[in-house]
Amino acid sequence: MLTIKHCWLRIFVTTIAIWSVIVPVTGVRASTFNDNHEVEIDGDTAIAPVSYIGGTMRRVYAVGTIAYIAEGSGLAIIDMADPARPMVLSRTYLSGRVNDLVVDNGYAFVTVGTAGVYVVDVTNSSAPRKIGHYAADYAGQLSVAGGFVYFTHKTGFHIIDVTNPANISATGSYTVPVIDAGGAQSIAISGQQVYLTYTHYDPTVGESSLYGELYIVDVSKPTEPTLSGSFARPFPSQGGDVVVEGTTAYFADGRYQGVSVLDVSDPTDPQQIGLYDEYIYRIVIQDNVGYFLKSHRLDLIDVSDPSNLVKIASYNFDTNSYGLGLYVLGKAAYLTSTVIGIEVVDISNPSQPAALGSYRTVADAGDVFVSGSYAYVVGRWFDGLRVVDISQPNSPKDVGYLELDGDPYRIQVAGSLLYIADAEGHSFWIIDISDPTNPTVVKKIVMSWYVDDLMVVGTTVYLANTVDGLRIYDVSDPAEPTEVGAYADGSHIYGVYVMGDVAYLADIGGKLIIVDISNRSDPKKLSEVSLPLLTSQQTWSVTVKDGFAYVMASGYSSGGSIHVVDVANPANPVLLPKHETKYSVQDIAFSGNTAFLATGDKYVQGELKVLDVSNPAGITELVSIPEGGTGIFIDEQHIYLAGDSLRILRYGEQDSYLYLPSITR
Question: How far apart are CA 659 and CA 665, in angstroms?
Fold first, then answer.
C-alpha cells in the first residue's frame, strides 16, 4: 500500500519551482542570518550557522580540473584532477538552498533561494571568500555577461551590475506579460538578447493548464529591457532549460514536449525547425554535439543539422537518480544528480562515453542522530547511512558510508549499535557502529508494512509498523532479535514514543493512541484522542515531554500543525489547542522550555522554528529562519539539521555558547 505520505515524498518536481516569500506571523520574527551570521532570539541568545556538509548537487561549473558545485546549502569546490579520487578543497556556507552558479574571472556568482545572489572570490580554491551579496526574495537560475548577472525571479528576471563584486547594484528587471501561479525557470544570454523560459499554470484548472513559453528580451539597454518576441508551447508543457548556439535556440521540456529547436535569427519571430522527442532537463552544446541530460541518462546528439537531430550515444547512470546539473569542458562532461552526486564522463569519443569517476556525499538527509564525535545521517531516496566526523564542527568530514536499499527514515543510536526504521523497504535494521568509519549490518528484519518510526529503550525496540501497529522486539542479542509483543487495532501507526510503561502512537488518520506496555507481551489500550486535522493533513510523529504529547501533522497544501495533548493521566488525556505552521512539520527537539522545530520537505526549503513551550496550551514562536529540514538533533552546543544537507548551527549566548540542560529528543 502506497500511502499519501509516501507518494508525496516521491513526486519529483521537474521544472515548476514556486518559492514563497517568508511572511512573518503576527508576533514572530522571520529572519535571515545577519552580517555576523546570527539570528537573535532575544537580547542574550542567538542562532548562528557553523558549517554544512553535503546536499543535493543542483548545478556544476568547471574550470580546468576544478569543479564548483551548487551543493545543498553552499558552494563546494572539488579538485577532480583524478576523477577516481576527488578531493574536497573547501565548502562555503551560504545559508539557504543553492540553486545555480557561474564562475567568471575568479568569482563564483551563486543564487541562493530566498537569500538572493552571493559573490564568492574563488581565486584561492582552498579559502574562498564571500565578498558581495545582493538580497532578493527569490533567485533561481542565472547567466553572466558583460559585468552583469541576469537571474530568474518568480515573474521574470533581474539584472544586477557586478563590475565591482563587493558593491553590487540593481540595474533593471523584466516581468513577463502574463503572470500566474507558474514561474520563471531558466535563463540564457546571447549577444543583446536574454532568453527566458517560463511555466504558466492555473491551479484552478490543474495540470492541463500547464504550458511553457520562451521570452526573448532585448537588453541592449540593461536599465530598460524590452520584449523582442516569444514562442509558446502547446498544452500541456513546461518551460525548462534553454541554450542558444548562434541563431539556434534549444528549448527543453523535462516532462511533456521534448526539446524544441528554434531558429532565432529573427528574435521577434522565433520559428520551430526541429524537435527532439525526449524529456530533457539540461542542455549543453559544444562542437556540434548536444549533451542532453534527462532523469538517469545523458544523450549525446549530433546537432550539426539543427532540423534533424541524431542521437550518437547514451550514457546511463543510476536508474534511481534524477539528473540536475551538466557542464561540458573539453573532453569531460560533469553531471550531477540526486543520487550520484557528481560524476565525470569521458566524452573524448562521443560515440563511446565512459565513466571516469564520481563523488558522493551526505545528500537528501532524512534524519540525524549524534553520538560522541560522530553524526549519523540517513539519506532518503536510496542513499543509505553516512557517518560524519564532527569533532571539529566548523569542518565536518564524511568518514563512513553504508549503502541501504529502501527508504531509511528514522534512526537512533544506543551504545555501539544504530537502529534504523526503513519505511519503503518495510525493514528494521541493526547496524554495528563500533568502528564508525566502517558501519556493518548486524541484522535486517523485513516486515509486512512500512516501518516509519522507532524508539530504543534499553534492550527493547518499539517499532511503528503502519497497519501492523506497534511491534516490540527484544534486542539483547542484536544478531537474533525476538518479537515479544505487538499492539494492532486496525489503525495505521506512523509514530511511536515510549515513556515508562506507556507507548504513545501517532495514527496517520489523526489519532493519538495511548497503550499500556507494562506487560510487553500483552499491550493494552488505555485511551485515544482524535485530533482536529486540516484538509489533506496526516499525523505521523509524536514526542512526549513533561507530561505533554506533541503530535505532528502535515499536509499537501495546508502546511503543518503540532497537536498538544496533556497526558499527565494517560488514561484520561486532555486535548489542548494546536499550533499551526506554514510548512510541513517534520521533527522536533527540546531543551528546557525551548523547542526546535524542523519544517519543510524535499522540495520546499522550509524553516527552522524556535518555539517557547513553557505554556504547552499556548505555544509561541520566538523566531523563524529559512533553514528547514526533516530531522533535527541538539546537544549542549549545537543544532544538527538534516534535510537537503547536514547543517550545523550553534545556539547560545551571542558570540559564545549556552549550555543546554535537559535535552529531550
Answer: 16
- Round the average pLDDT of the chain to a whole number and report it: 89
* Cell digits of residue 653: 549566548
d(CA 50, CA 285): 39
Confidence of residue 600 (pLDDT cuts 50, 70, 90): confident
Residues 6+ apart with CB under 8 A from 82: 357
Burial classification of residue 372, based on how many CB atoms lie within 10 Å of its CB (0-12 exposed, 13-18 middle, 19 or more buried): exposed
Q: pLDDT band at residue 357, thresholds of 50, 70 and 90?
A: very high
Please tell me whether the peptide bond between 577 and the residue prior to it is cis, using omega within 30 degrees of 0. no
Nearest to 2 by CA among 467, 555, 385, 463: 467
Q: Are 366 and 379 in contact (CB under 8 A)?
A: yes
Residue 586: CB partners within 8 Å, gap ≥ 6? 541, 552, 554, 598, 599, 600, 601, 606, 628, 629, 630, 631, 632
- 237 secondary structure, DSSP code: -
Q: Which residue has the higher pLDDT, 267 or 115?
A: 267
Name the residue among 625, 624, 584, 626 with its Cα closest to residue 601.
Answer: 584
pTM recorded for the entire structure? 0.84
- DSSP label of 518: S
Distances (CA, A) of 372 to 135, 215, 344, 408: 38, 54, 35, 22
Q: How confident is the model at residue 362, as a pLDDT? A: 83
Kind plus residue range of the DSSP H or E element containing 299: strand 297-302
Asked if residues 47 and 623 have their Cβ atoms less than 8 Å apart, the reply is yes
CB count in 10 Å sphere of residue 435: 11
- Secondary structure letter of residue 466 according to DSSP: B
Nearest to 364 by CA among 391, 392, 340, 330: 340
The x, y and z cell numbers of residue 539, run together, are: 499525523
Type of residue found at 654: Q
CA distances from 122 to 10, 126, 149, 229 (A): 36, 8, 17, 37
Which string of DSSP letters, residue by residue, matches 211-225? Answer: EEEEEEEE-SSTTS-
Question: Residue 312 in contact with residue 329, Cβ under 8 Å?
Answer: no
Burial of 283 (0-12, 13-18, 19+ CB in 10 A): buried
Calculate ∠ Cα 243-113-579, nearest 5°: 145
3-state secondary structure 633-652: EECCCEEEEECCCEEEEEEE
- Where does the pLDDT of residue 188 fall: very low under 50, low under 70, confident under 90, or very high at 90 and above? very high
How far is residue 482's CA from residue 214's CA, in Å, rounded to a whole number? 61
Distance CA 493, CA 528 (A): 13
| Euclidean distance between CA atoms 385 and 431, whole angstroms | 10
